[in-house]
Structures are given as C-alpha cells and as structure tokens.
C-alpha cells in the first residue's frame, strides 16, 4: 500500500486539487496535418498551434510525433519566409526556431500513420519516427485536414476511414500501447471519425457533427489565405491560459468552442472513457508527467567518509 499512498500524495501536491486516478506514467502527442497546397495554410497553422501548446506545457519533442504534409514556412508564396502565423496580427510565429517535424511532405501517408500508431514498423525505423508508448502512456491524438462522412483525406490522394482508425486504436489497446487517449479532430463532419471507436479509455472531441462543415476563422490579407480554423483558434485561445499546475479540467476544455463561436456543433464522445472529465486535469493529456521512481533500498551514510 505504501507505493500507492506516496503516488497519491504526489498528485495532490502537483495539482493542488485533483486526486490521482490516472495512474499514467508518461505523456505523448501525435499531431497530424494531412493537407497539401498553399490554400490549406490554415491546417499547418492548426497543427503547429497545438504543437506549441503541448511543448509549452512540458511534453518534450522526444515524445511528440509531428506530421506535416506541406512546408508552408518555405513555400515561395509565403511573404515572410520561415514563418507560419495563426493570427492576422502576426504576433505569434508558430513555426518558431525549434520545430521538429518527424514526418513531412509525402511521408505523411495513411500507411505511415497507421504503422506509427500500431508499432508495425521496419526494424531500421529511426527513433524519431516511432511512437514508443506503453500501457502507462496517455496520448493526445490531434488530426486536421479535409474530411467527410467516415473518412479523412491524406494529401488529397488517399483517405483513412473511421473503421480503419478504430481498428488501429484497438490494436494499440491489445498491444498495451496506451493507458488513455484523447482524440481531437478538426475537419468537416469530424464526429464521424470517432463513431466506430470501440476500444476502452478513449475520450474524443470533434469540431463538427455529421452533415456539418468545419469553418475557417479569418483571412490574413498579407498572406492571402485563411490562416486558422475556428475550432482550433478557440482551442488555442483556451490553452494559452493553461499552466502546468492549472486546476482546469477536461470538462472545461470540452466546452471550448460553443456554437456561436464555431458555427459548427462540437461533438464529444465520453462513453468509452472510464473517468469523469470534470475530475481529469487538462494536463493529463496536454502536459507532461514528471517521472517519479520509488525505491525501498536504504543506504547507511552515517559512517560514510566525506570526499
């Protein structure tokens, strides 16, 4: 019982409000932009905005898999090379100086995405392209791009279906590759992508219901295209106020974009998730767990000579 008691006290100390129920030992993020071409600039801004937030809250690059289907920062149409902005005032360059893209351009495929999740990779795959999770891992999966009822397009040339995605997550569960997953998707008819899920411990959120489009937020005249989607814009606005020791819960985040802001209806699925979102700290998915190693071996240092 001692290890459980010590772990509970640790959680109470860090969060100052939540009782430790998660029992996860590490956090990972899989962030995917599936769209190419300049007019889809906003999808790159979407994924880099979430990337910036999880890094700020402590998830290291070694535990973030970033998949970006096109390089907007170096696109010849970009009037400000090496930058990606998510707001027309251009105050925040989400590309930054230390973005580590793990899959870029034509590496962003359905096959690579599914292999990443399931761990079915060639033996020579570099560490940066592997999702090295275990049964103690909480994983944030964020997808953005163009989709429809039951599918998400990759590169405008192929698609992953909701059933394929559900089966990949089930493989992850069977192989003990996660403890809990927060699935977050910003695309048209987004909720259709989580309807087929059947694996436990998954909390899902979508920018739109079936039959609805997800809308862009605003245009930057200097760039000439929409630069962020409405749902991700309000999610980022919310996350900017989150600190590592925040008392904000996942229930607060699930209401991040009401219909008057998003225009579309945000979808939420909680039936597969075993905890009350009101009692789950948002940092259980968007922040980093500091590893704590308990030992019951004692060393007598009373007679140890000083060096």
UniProtKB/TrEMBL annotation:
InterPro entries tied to this protein: GPI_transamidase, Peptidase_C13
Signal sequence bounds: 1-22
Keyword Flavoprotein: no
Functional pathway: Glycolipid biosynthesis; glycosylphosphatidylinositol-anchor biosynthesis
Keyword Signal part of the UniProt annotation: yes
Chain ranges passing through the membrane: none
Keyword list, A-Z: GPI-anchor biosynthesis, Signal
GO molecular function, one term: GPI-anchor transamidase activity
GO cellular component: GPI-anchor transamidase complex
Catalytic residue list: 146, 188 (nucleophile)
BP GO annotations: attachment of GPI anchor to protein; GPI anchor biosynthetic process; proteolysis
Family: Belongs to the peptidase C13 family.
Protein name: GPI-anchor transamidase
Species of provenance: Sipha flava (yellow sugarcane aphid)
Lineage of source species: Eukaryota, Metazoa, Ecdysozoa, Arthropoda, Hexapoda
Primary gene name: LOC112689203
């Amino acid at each position: 019982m001692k290890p459980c008691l010590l772990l509970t006290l640790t959680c109470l100390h860090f969060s100052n409000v939540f009782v430790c129920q998660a029992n996860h030992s590490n956090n990972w993020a899989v962030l995917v932009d599936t769209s190419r071409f300049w007019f889809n600039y906003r999808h790159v801004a979407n994924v880099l905005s979430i990337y910036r937030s999880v890094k700020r809250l402590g998830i290291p690059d070694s535990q973030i898999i970033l998949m970006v289907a096109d390089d907007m920062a170096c696109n010849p149409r970009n009037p400000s090379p090496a930058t990606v902005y998510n707001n027309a005032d251009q105050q925040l360059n989400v590309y930054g100086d230390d973005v580590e893209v793990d899959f870029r351009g034509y590496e962003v495929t359905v096959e690579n995405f599914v292999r990443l999740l399931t761990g079915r990779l060639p033996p020579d795959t570099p560490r940066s392209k592997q999702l090295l999770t275990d049964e103690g891992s909480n994983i944030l999966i964020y997808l953005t791009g163009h989709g429809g009822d039951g599918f998400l397009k990759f590169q405008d040339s192929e698609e992953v279906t909701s059933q394929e995605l559900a089966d990949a997550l089930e493989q992850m569960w069977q192989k003990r590759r996660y403890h809990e997953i927060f699935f977050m998707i910003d695309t048209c008819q987004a909720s259709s992508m989580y309807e087929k899920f059947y694996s436990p411990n998954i909390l899902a959120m979508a920018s739109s219901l079936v039959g609805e489009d997800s809308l862009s937020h605003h245009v930057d005249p200097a760039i000439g295209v929409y630069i962020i989607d409405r749902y991700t814009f309000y999610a980022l606005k919310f996350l900017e106020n989150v600190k590592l020791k925040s008392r904000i819960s996942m229930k607060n985040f699930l209401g991040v974009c009401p219909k008057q802001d998003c225009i579309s209806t945000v979808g939420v699925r909680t039936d597969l998730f075993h905890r009350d979102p009101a009692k789950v700290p948002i940092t259980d998915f968007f922040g980093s767990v500091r590893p704590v190693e308990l030992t019951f071996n004692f060393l007598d240092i009373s007679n140890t000579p000083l060096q």
